[in-house]
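Recap quiz, item 2
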Amino acid sequence: MTKARVTVIEDDTDLREAICVMLRYEGYEASGFSNAREAIHRLEGGHQSDVILLDLMMPVMNGWEFCEYRAEATTLARVPVIVITARRAVTAPPGVSDVLLKPFDADELYDAINKVLAGSPVTAGRQRQEQ
Amino acid sequence: MSRGDYAPDQDGVVAEILRHLAEIGAGRTSITDDDLANAPTDVMRELLVGLLTLHEDLQYEQGLRAVAEQQSDRLVADLRAAVTARDEFLSIASHELRTPLSTLKLQTAGLSRWLSQASLPEHEPHLLKHFAVIDRQVARLEKLTTELLDVSRISSGRLELHCEHFDLVVLVREIVERFRADQARGSSSIVFESAPSVVGEWDPFRIDQVASNLVVNAIRYGEGKPVHVSVHAVNGAARIIVRDEGIGIAADHKERIFERFERAVSSSNYGGLGLGLWISRRVVDAHDGTIDVASEPGLGATFTVTLPLSMRVSE
């Protein structure tokens, strides 16, 4: 059973894959992207996602730029975003649901996702899945 | 030459010398080569030469002083820049370390999941042992990077408290339990004693950091003898006392141990960054509390943290 579909946008390959693997172990469907532009391309091309895990400092298109774009994009704006960052004092981009501080462990990762999913309105993608 | 040479107009000469001295004092002189050539007497000429020399000496010294001041201004600016660069570097380095640490934590969690499911009766004890070490070392790396980050945060005045209402006894008991779980590795036993509860407003993450740090030190420098931890309320304040019976601290080191990168022991015998007590003191200060140490070399050390039950709210 798939719990939820998680999009992981993180430029560090090892961390991205570790997050995806741990999510899959727990029953989530996880797709990883090394930069925000690639993720936008796929998400707008029909890739369904219930929550987005977003690193902030990334090449090509960073997390802040992604959030600026998301605010204007109707498809993306519906998907809640959890920022993953090492900076406690960082100003999270507007519209972000939660901030997950590095170094986080697997339980903190699951908790953050479940919390956001519990509080977020059901996305179009989920409704289709549940029908 | 006799004194009679300048007797006729002694007052005039004295007045002129005073005028020249006043000028020299103000950093200038009106004595010219012509004045020297046309000096009415030899004595007067010698006096004028003396005054000129005095003026030149003063000017020279003033020049030296100006150069020295310029150099020290530059040195101070260079030092400030170096300190800023160091703090920025610490901040960047400790942030950079957090990404690989996240990967390590997730990978160890993944490994632990497999180990718990794997049926490898022959190799499992070895795997579990290796795994436990990795897990412990990851936690240690995390603590070290947190300390580095705290240095840059505290140095630049960015230590923020997130205070909550909680029972200090519960928190410290948890810390003690955490360390007791490690006792299999042969370190000191911990004796915990407390009031039923001591409730107040503090930053739980930071107070955990302070108390853990004191317990770590007590175990590290405790020579394997028992460590005593207590929590009580005294005169409207909470008091955490951590006492060991180990190597102790010499009197001249009692203040130094609260400084950055300082330890009372040789770094070739004991590891660590020398930041724990410095961070602890800053955290306790931020809570309007105090941290003190009493110790006799060879008889152990007693660290006392006193925290007001709630902080004064500044208007």
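Chain A touches chain B at residues 12, 14-15, 18-19, 21-22, 25, 84, 86-87, 89, 102-107, 109 (CB under 8 Å).
Chain A is about 45% helix and 20% strand.
End of item.
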